[in-house]
Design a protein that fits this description.
Helix 3 (57-68) links the parallel strand 4 and strand 5. The protein is globular. The strands form 2 sheets. Strands 5-4-1-8-9-10-11-12-13 form a 9-stranded mixed β-sheet, sandwiched between helices. Strands 3-2-6-7 form a 4-stranded mixed β-sheet. The longest helix is centred in the C-terminal third of the chain and has 16 residues, at 269-284. The chain has a single domain, classed as UDP-N-acetylmuramoyl-L-alanine:D-glutamate ligase (3-Layer(aba) Sandwich), CATH 3.40.1190.20. It has 11 helices and 13 strands. The protein is an alpha/beta fold.
Length: 309
């Protein structure tokens, strides 16, 4: 990416894992932060996926795929293999993951180029998975610390608990660094147990997290049971639309990206929530995490992201 352009542009960044999802129908590019950056780019925003790949065919092809999809990227080359995830789907299209360890995205370096990008980033999305390793944990932390602070800055913790690749320390640190939390109902039960919120209703747990960590927004997704958005003076609930599900891989990432794109473009929480629900439902009806969005979704943001250009 052009460093001079970085100085003149406010970026939206997904930082963490970029990898290959090995699905029943074949290999598809994935990783929550990369999915997030891809969907942000579809709304006309200057987005960038920050991760690492190996000096291998899989890494070169991952770069090529992001380039073809017109997603900005800083994928550092490191002496570890490019990440892969074996994805299996149940009868309802719900995925389970077998995530390879000791891979490139476990070793994302905090380079001068990534530091410069952070200084010109208005919104970033990160999760818990890439923080399973000390190297990437430090890089994500330094990126968030380097970002400018302010009313229009967003640091989104899309928690994405996977297998055993998280600790209470990482979750709590991340809650203190973010100002928006996105979590699903299964993850909320785990976090509730971590922080002494057993016995509370999900809405009460979300309100507790909102207050305890000074968050602006908590987003709770509950699959077919709908989703809720909590802010200090607001709650929005929207049922999940019925669609014929191909698979749900990447649907949560498309929800996060659509919601944040709407906020950045000046829409309110209710409108942002509606767009996010509709986009995620569409992604569930498609195979893989990065389908092309129809114009009926992207056209809802009439300024094509000009709010942050």
């Amino acid at each position: 990416m052009n460093t001079e352009a970085n100085r003149k542009t406010e970026w939206v960044v997904g930082i963490g894992e970029a990898l290959w999802d090995i699905l029943p129908e074949g290999r598809k590019i994935g990783g929550a932060p990369a999915n997030f950056a891809y969907h942000m780019s579809q709304f006309g925003l200057h987005s960038c996926a920050v991760s690492a790949v190996g000096d291998d065919e899989a890494g070169r092809e991952l770069r090529n795929q992001l380039r073809e999809k017109r997603v900005g990227h800083m994928l550092e080359t490191v002496p570890f293999p490019t990440g892969t995830v074996e994805v299996t789907l149940d009868g309802a299209g719900i995925p389970s993951y077998e995530i390879r360890q000791g891979v490139a995205w476990d070793n994302i370096p905090f380079t001068p180029q990534i530091e410069e990008l952070a200084r010109h980033t208005r919104a970033a999305c990160f999760g818990s998975l890439a923080q399973r390793s000390p190297v990437s944990h430090r890089t994500i932390g330094r990126f968030l610390e380097t970002m400018p602070d302010g009313e229009g800055q967003y640091k989104v913790f899309d928690i994405n608990l996977r297998q055993h690749f998280y600790t209470q320390q990482v979750v709590e640190e991340s809650l203190r660094k973010c100002n928006i939390l996105k979590i699903n109902d299964e993850e909320l039960a785990v976090v509730g147990s971590m922080f002494g919120m057993e016995g509370m209703q999900p809405g009460e747990q979300c309100r507790t997290l909102l207050d305890r960590y000074g968050l602006r927004i908590v987003i709770l997704t509950c699959g077919a049971a709908g989703s809720s958005v909590f802010a200090p003076d607001t709650r929005s609930y929207i049922p999940t639309p019925r669609v014929e599900v191909a698979d749900t891989v990447g649907a949560g990432d498309s929800f996060t990206a659509s919601f944040l794109a709407a906020l950045l473009s000046g829409l309110g929480i209710g409108e942002a929530h509606r767009l996010a629900v509709d986009v995620a439902a569409h992604v569930c009806s498609q195979h893989g995490a990065m389908p092309r969005l129809p114009e009926r979704f992207t056209a809802r943001l009439r300024n094509d992201g000009s709010a942050i250009r």
